[in-house]
Specification:
- With about 325 residues, the chain is an alpha/beta fold.
- The chain has a single domain, classed as Luciferase-like domain (TIM Barrel, Alpha-Beta Barrel).
- The chain is about 45% helix and about 15% strand.
- It contains 13 helices and nine strands.
- It has helices spanning about 15-35, 55-65, 85-95, 115-120, 125-130, 130-140, 175-180, 195-205, 230-250, 260-265, 270-280, 290-300, 315-330, and strands at about 1-5, 40, 70-75, 100-105, 165-170, 185-190, 220-225, 285, 305-310.
- Strands 1-2-3-4-5-6-7-9 form an eight-stranded parallel β-barrel, surrounded by eight helices.
- Helix 2 (about 55-65) runs parallel beside helix 3 (about 85-95), helix 7 runs parallel beside helix 8 (about 195-205) and helix 12 crosses helix 13.
- The protein is globular, with a radius of gyration of 19 Å.
- The N and C termini lie close together (about 5 Å).
- The model has no long low-confidence stretch (mean pLDDT about 95).
- It comes from Evansella alkalicola.
- To bacterial alkanal monooxygenase alpha and beta chains.
- Pfam families: Bac_luciferase (PF00296).
- This is LLM class flavin-dependent oxidoreductase.
């Protein structure tokens, strides 16, 4: 089984933003040592508990501190930007780190309404125009605008020997069909979806049209996982993430991922308990054997080529150890 890492660069309550970013670097280095296929970093805006607002900047630093693991954005939020600028940024990265660069493309705002307005004009219109933005980006990546096009003589330099690989990331049928239409690999965010992802991925595979990037469908499924030596330990470690996720959804959680002590001191309402229960139902939590069994089951159900793991803990050591245990079991 191929395993990869999705990171959101979380900041714990006892950390600074810089420490959160440096832990992202440490995770990519550990993933490389453990045998993970790729490391993707997410893009978020105006969310104090998450450190990465600019994946392309952080990826340049991580690329310089790793040697072989594939790197990418998970996702670059395309409606905020012009495709030409995205192509330039990732061509630069692909030139510096040849054969290692992915561009995960998403359409979500990635933050507050205020942040969305500050980043881009007419965001909703650009979301609607996402297929055209993807098509334009693909032309810039491959430098193949047709004769007579406005951008026919425009190149997104530096032009790398090996192009970055674009992926469509999403949780909807719309994103799956967009990936299928342009012959792109597809990453389904199971960890953030309440939809029947198996049907969505099946439709992607059925509708796939071979293109310049992929001649056959390719699927990653991203899953929330907390792994420890025992189920009890994993359940305990996962509490911080569960409570923080609930707090963030409610407009709190700005202080970062809480410690176990902070979590245990909090009294939950019935509504909050239900929220935590629902979140937990969408995660895989357990010892290495339990987690491996569940991942294999999901991989088979989704017909996935690769499983991408997102793990958030208060302690960076617990996070690294979770990825290590999983690698020892499956890689």
């Amino acid at each position: 089984m191929k395993l990869s890492i999705l990171d959101q660069a979380p900041i714990s309550t006892n950390q600074t933003s810089k420490e959160g970013l440096l832990e992202a670097v440490a995770l990519a280095q550990a993933g490389e040592a453990y045998g993970y296929t790729r490391y993707w970093i997410a893009e978020h805006h105006d969310l104090p508990g998450l450190a990465c607002t600019s994946p392309e900047v952080l990826l340049s630093y991580i690329g310089a501190h790793t040697k072989s693991i594939r790197l990418g954005s998970g996702a670059t939020l395309l409606p905020h930007y012009k495709p030409y600028k995205i192509a330039e940024s990732f061509h630069t990265l692909a030139t510096l780190f040849p054969g290692r660069m992915d561009i995960g493309l998403g359409r979500a705002p990635g933050g507050s309404a205020e942040a969305t307005n500050a980043l881009s004009d007419n965001f909703l219109q650009k979301v609607y125009d996402m297929p055209n933005l993807v098509e334009e980006l693909l032309h810039f990546i491959h430098n193949d605008f047709p004769e007579g096009h406005t951008y026919h003589n425009l190149t997104a330099n530096p032009f790398p020997n090996e192009a970055p690989v674009p992926w469509i990331l999403g949780t909807s049928m719309k994103s799956a069909l967009l990936a299928a239409k342009y012959g792109l690999p597809y990453a389904f965010g199971q960890f953030m979806s309440e939809k029947n992802g198996i049907d969505i991925v099946e439709k992607y595979i059925d509708a796939f049209q071979p293109g310049k990037v992929n001649t056959k469908p390719e699927v990653i499924v991203a899953v929330s996982v907390v792994c420890a030596e025992t189920t009890e330990k994993a359940e305990e470690i996962a509490l911080s993430w569960l409570i923080w996720g609930m707090q963030t959804e409610g407009g709190q959680g700005s202080q970062g991922v809480p410690s176990l002590e902070e979590v245990k001191s909090k009294s939950l309402t019935d509504k909050e308990k239900l929220s935590v229960k629902n979140r937990k139902a969408n995660m895989i939590i357990g010892n290495p054997q339990e987690v491996a069994t569940n991942l294999k089951k999901l991989q088979k159900e989704y017909n996935a080529d690769e499983m991408m793991i997102i793990t958030i803990t208060h302690s960076p050591d617990d996070r690294l150890h979770s990825y290590k245990l999983l690698a020892d079991e499956l890689l």
